[in-house]
Design brief:
The protein is α/β, with parallel strands linked by helices. The protein contains seven helices and nine strands; from the N terminus they run H-H-H-E-H-E-H-E-E-H-E-E-E-H-E-E. The chain has helices spanning 4-12, 14-21, 28-36, 52-59, 71-81, 116-126, 157-167; strands spanning 42-46, 63-68, 86-87, 99-105, 127-138, 143-145, 151-153, 169-180, 186-196. The strands form two sheets. A seven-stranded mixed sheet has the order 3-2-1-4-5-9-8, sandwiched between helices. The radius of gyration is 15 Å and the shape is globular.
Length: 198
């Protein structure tokens, strides 16, 4: 299920978002993810936004598949990077044993809590055996809208780890922190890296 208000916010603020996320080089999380990929790896950039991460992956020799549910973000991604970003929701991912890696950096936090097990199971199936999954989520409890009307599902670190394990993943690394986002607030987060068994 896609929240219309969240998509409308991203459509309206796509230009602001790219200013917030644009970087000349990958950050530590993305660089570490790239280094785990085999040469020419196929990577799903799920909730790609303006596809800044996909552009860095492409520069590193990977084959990025940027997907976003916001038409405004997809348009901006292709205008900025000519990268083949495409419109799609979490529920549209139906590949099987296809991707070497999946980069879901602060995107699945917009999925309803009840849908997270289903989406994580689909992403597990989409990865090749041994494939790497990166997920970033805001930490907390419950669901709420932020100051710019985006709907969030907050998770605890323990909860996210349990969700990944229930989907079949082996958790490899966990990092917590806080940062200022598009709404201007400083929010706590967790980033986990996991592997598909097999």
């Amino acid at each position: 299920m896609v929240d219309a208000k969240t998509i409308a916010t991203y459509d309206a603020k796509a230009g602001d978002y790219i200013k917030l996320t644009q970087q000349d080089a990958p950050d530590a999380s993305l660089q570490g993810f790239i280094e785990l990929m085999p040469p020419g790896a196929h990577v799903l950039d799920l909730g790609c936004g303006p596809a800044t991460s996909s552009a860095h992956m492409r520069a590193a020799g990977l084959i990025a598949d940027p997907v976003d549910a916001s038409p405004g973000m997809v348009t901006l991604a292709n205008e900025t990077h000519e990268i083949g970003a495409r419109l799609g929701t979490f529920g549209d991912i139906d590949a099987v044993d296809f991707y070497d890696g999946i980069w879901a950096n602060f995107s699945l936090l917009h999925a309803p809590r009840a849908d997270l097990p289903r989406h994580l199971a689909a992403l597990y199936r989409a990865l090749k055996p041994g494939g790497i999954f990166h997920i970033g989520m805001k930490t907390g409890e419950g669901s709420a809208r932020d100051g710019i009307d985006r709907l969030y599902t907050y998770v605890t670190v323990v909860e996210l780890d349990a969700l990944l394990r229930a989907a079949g993943f082996e958790t490899l690394d966990t990092r917590e922190g806080s940062e200022r986002g598009l709404a201007g607030t400083i929010d706590p987060f967790v980033i986990m890296r996991a592997r598909k068994r097999g």
